[in-house]
Design brief:
With 220 residues, this protein is of the alpha/beta class. Helices cover 43% and strands 19% of the residues. The protein is built from 8 helices and 7 strands. Strands 1, 2, 3, 4, 5, 6 and 7 form a 7-stranded mixed β-sheet that branches. 37% of the residues are buried.
């Protein structure tokens, strides 16, 4: 069975260090899953392209954009998620938070999540544990033990051994989670009771219009 990995990156520029880190992590996961004899399909969600639909969704609550709806479905159907954000003022970006705010409450349940972040200074490295990890734990995702933080110096020094080792360790954990879930092996993921399908919140049933709901009421 081909496993599905969704990579969400919230970089604002093009190109961005956030997308660069996301690509390096995705490649590392793909190579490790392949080495274990499994197939992996990687889907990228670039939040910069969804800025306007996200703002509309936050202010109206409606399903306004086909691409945003499709990306919500991808996350709900994924076997693993890599979430990468730039750091602004000691926390994740507003664009990053908006995307996870518009997901269905059950979209991330039991989903293995590899958290990662980029920033200009190593001083922000604790954001993985004081901001990102609680966000995904609240959503009942399975946050992998190793997060990946990359400061500007990690990309420009030429000696990226520290960053590469963090990516390798985190990618190995994600590969283990994906292969274990595929084989039904106990490990990162709960196996009892059986997990219900996650919900995207996009495919809704019939909706009764407001006028019909008020029919028969005189307002007194």
């Amino acid at each position: 069975m081909t496993r599905q990995l969704v990579v969400v990156s919230a970089g604002l520029s093009s190109p961005s260090s956030t997308r660069l880190l996301a690509d390096r992590i995705a490649h590392a996961v793909e190579s490790r899953v392949g080495a274990r004899g499994e197939a992996l399909e990687v889907h990228h969600v670039e939040l910069r392209d969804l800025a306007l639909p996200l703002a509309q969704a936050m202010t109206t609550g409606g399903l306004l954009d086909p691409q945003l709806d499709e990306d919500k479905r991808l996350v709900a159907q994924a076997d693993g998620l890599v979430a990468v954000t730039p750091i602004f003022r000691a926390s994740y970006s507003g664009l990053f938070k908006m995307f996870f705010d518009v997901l269905d409450d059950e979209a991330l349940i039991d989903l293995p999540v590899l958290i990662a972040a980029t920033a200009g200074s190593p001083r922000h490295s604790l954001v993985l544990d004081h901001a990102l990890r609680p966000l995904f734990s609240y959503s009942r995702a399975v946050v992998l033990p190793t997060g990946v933080f990359a400061a500007t110096d990690d990309f420009g020094s030429g000696d990226t051994g520290g960053l590469e080792s963090r990516i390798a360790r985190a990618a190995s954990e994600m590969a283990t989670a994906l292969v274990a879930e595929s084989a039904g092996v106990e490990g990162f993921l709960p196996t009892e009771p059986a997990r219900a399908p996650r919900r995207s919140g996009v495919d809704l049933g019939p909706v009764t219009d407001f006028a019909s709901l008020l029919k028969g009421h005189d307002g007194s």
